[in-house]
Amino acid sequence: MVNSEPVNEWFIDGWQLGDTPRQLTLSDCEQLEQGCWYHCQRDAAGLKQWLSRVGVPSSLVSALLADDTRPRFEPLGEDTFLLIVRGINLNKGNNPDDMLSIRFLYFKGCLISTRKYPSRAIAEARRQCEEGNSPPSLLAMLVTIIDKLNRNIETFLDPIEEDIEFYAEHQDEADSQSLANLNKRLLKIRRFLTPQRYALDDLLQSEIAGLDALRMPLLNCRDLVVRINESINFYIDQIQVINQHLGQVQSEKVNRNTYLISMISIIFLPISFLTGLLGVNIGGMPGVDSSTAFWLFCIALLAVTVFEIILFRRMKFI
């Protein structure tokens, strides 16, 4: 099990990797040791001071602690780099598409990671360390975490894909609000996954010592991000097609209703004219002295209506 995480401490967990992983304590953090992974709480008091104390340059400290950053890879000299990636926020009470940020600093032969919210991918990697089957090196651990982050994104998209496929097959049951919500979630994820692909491309092209043996799993991570991006683009295109169908159906419905109202108005226009004409009281109203005038007038109106309907049908207006 993953250890409980103190919310008011900057040091969450740490491990010295190797054949037998050794868990670090706060007392092991007085100075950086090669082969060690330090996982830290980004917004906790004391982290900035510790980073400065162990020799991390101030510019890197700012990058590790920044509130909002896009995924990127930044080489910082021989065997030193900064990598920022994003993952699905699977914490209770949070929106998954509000993607959490994980920052990695490979520095002096050790790996420092910072986060604001817990990450399931990090928790799984820590669990591997506790079970004694952690990756053999820090770079292998980094690639493992990246892979877990990407696979969590892929898993999160599965029900979204099912919803879109359902709406595509049953377009009459789709509603614009649900589609708008799906589209918004996909756009928020794509916003970070596109630069994440470029960050992994840059990492693949770097000359970091020890990375050659990990090119293939890292390439698989990059390819997975590419596939996820392509899937998201396809889902967004599907939503647009469904929205166009809904708009067309709505437009046809409005046109039918408008046409029906227009035809009713045309049919009743002559009738209204006749009733208005006979209602003009100038020199007396016609037919007032006849007991059959009203019924004859009603028959005449009915005849006019029938004539109009027959005429419109022959002209294929109705």
UniProtKB/TrEMBL annotation:
GO molecular function: cobalt ion binding; cobalt ion transmembrane transporter activity; magnesium ion binding; magnesium ion transmembrane transporter activity
Highest taxon of source: Bacteria
Gene Ontology CC entries for this record: plasma membrane
Membrane topology note: Multi-pass membrane protein
Location of the protein in the cell: Cell membrane
InterPro entries: CorA_cytoplasmic_dom, CorA_TM1_TM2, MgTranspt_CorA/ZnTranspt_ZntB
Keyword vocabulary terms for this entry: Cell inner membrane, Cell membrane, Ion transport, Membrane, Transmembrane, Transmembrane helix, Transport, Zinc
UniProt-listed Gene3D superfamilies: CorA soluble domain-like (3.30.460.20), Magnesium transport protein CorA, transmembrane region (1.20.58.340)
Family classification: Belongs to the CorA metal ion transporter (MIT) (TC 1.A.35) family.
Protein name (Swiss-Prot/TrEMBL): Zinc transporter ZntB
Organism: Photobacterium halotolerans
Lineage, broadest ranks: Bacteria, Pseudomonadati, Pseudomonadota, Gammaproteobacteria, Vibrionales
